Amino acid sequence: MLGIAAAVLFFIAFLLNAADIATNDVLSSTNLMLIGLAALALHVAGIGGTRPARGWGRRR
Hints:
Keywords: Membrane, Transmembrane, Transmembrane helix. The chain crosses the membrane at residues 28-50. The protein is mostly helical and 60 residues long. It is built from 2 helices and no strands. It has helices at 2-18, 29-45. Helix 1 runs antiparallel to helix 2.
């Protein structure tokens, strides 16, 4: 899920940069790119994905 969010943020940052749209400092294309990178890093780390299988780590 975070990978999809990162892709959307990268696309929005690209559109803002390509169209040369002036926005305030909070919604700049650089800030959106950095938020996208953070979401991508969390996705690669395994956070925000599916829940672990039931009984993981439990042996019988």
